[in-house]
Design goal:
Layout lengths: L30 H11 L2 H9 L4 H8 L10 H10 L4 H10 L8 H11 L6 H10 L1 H5 L4 H14 L3 H10 L8 H17 L4 H14 L8 H13 L4 H10 L9 H15 L3 H10 L2 H4 L2 H13 L4 H6 L8 H12 L17 H16 L14
Helix pairs in contact: 11-12, 11-13
Family: Belongs to the mTERF family.
Subunit structure: Monomer.
GO molecular function: nucleic acid binding
Amino acid sequence: MLWKLLVRSQPCRLCFFRKMQSTPKYKPFLAYFTTDRQSNKENKRTVETLYKFSVDIRKIRSLKGWVLLEDETYVEEVANILQELGADEAVIASILERCPEAIVCSPAAIDTQRKLWQLVCKNEEELIKLIEQFPESFFIVKNQENLKLNVQFFQELGLKNVVISRFLTTASNIFHNPVEKNKETIKLLQESYLNVGGSEANMKVWLLKLLSQNPFILLRSPTTIKETLEFLQKQGFTNFEILQFLSKLKGFLFQLCPRDIQNSISFSKNAFECTDRDLKQLVLKCPALLYYSVPVLEERIQGLLKEGISIAQIRETPMVLELTPQIVQYRIRKLNSLGYRIKDGHLANLNGTKKEFEANFGKIQAKKERPLFNPVAPLNVEE
């Protein structure tokens, strides 16, 4: 899913601890001696306990060696909590190697975190799998009270626990917001949907689907969301058309500002050498033209042109711009293997999802292999 590739959570730790200073790209000669001196300053009890749990100390030293210098650590306590959840020695070692700051978090804070995550993930086996996959999301959080209130709010909205647990691991930043901020954004989204002609009956389904596909919309300010909708109205799009965008673009429209949209529109207008009215029709066919950045649009158009596809063909089927150059090349090769020359035909056979393309390809292949006549069918011959 696209929403998985957008924003990584910013680390805000359960406990207050020192930040690492940025290290130079190349180690000076004396640094090799300093490393030994630093190892002498490490908390020996911490190191020994980590060895006890088969943790690779070298990985921690290279990743976040500062945790080994801390006077107070909780290696055994953290390991015990993970064991209670069903983690074996290998899983515990893996978690501590990838998220060493876990050992400087107090057991009380971790226990609270466990209870909060269990609000949406009651199965301990599933919970430990989530922690193993996303240890930083579990051990690093800004405000546990915010987390609790936001989880409760999302449950009240009607989001399923499995969706909220996905938010915890891959979109943890939205829980850093005060719950009032998230409520304000949700209220604005609901009002916006109704203002452009959406119905009360469909609003909840639309909202839950929107959040499930793109929770990062909650990181946008309500002001920016309003400005984006107003900008589209000034561009001549009707409420019905904007409602279509809200349904098709999965909320990514709200992650843009008017300037981004204007840049994309101006580029597309020049690239396709079309009028404002023609461009509007292109956007209605392919709403992605609004949110793809200029470099992305330029790369995809150039990729199509290199394959012998004309601007006129792209204008006729602009949805092809939703495909990356790599996907385009792969599909053209497959079609060429059947003798189908895409540059001489319609781009519809190139377009669509992977499933749709494979179905189309299968039909073309079957048609090509079909005999000219059915040898077992009776012939209509006049006597």
